[in-house]
Amino acid sequence: xxxxxxxxxxxxxxxxxxxxxxxxxxxxxxxxxxxxxxxxxxxxxxxxxxxxxxxxxxxxxxxxxxxxxxxxxxxxxxxxxxxxxxxxxxxxxxxxxxxx
Length: 100
Description:
Elements: H1 3-10, H2 20-34, H3 40-52, H4 54-73, H5 80-96
């Protein structure tokens, strides 16, 4: 089970206006948001959603803290072979979910 799937299952109940399916989609977009992979329009859309949806706002806070913790803890570079295996696994995982 991917981290994304686990987080979706463990997420608190959706607030009004954020059904479970849109919540999963928004969680995927939160990862992209945290990674700086969205355009200005999508960033504005996510910010507006976060103002309306406290469960998604909580997820963003948790994921942001986790990302910062990992960044601070990982001062060494992974070997090139490990990085390549991780990239390959990401491709497999995203292909399985229909998202490329």
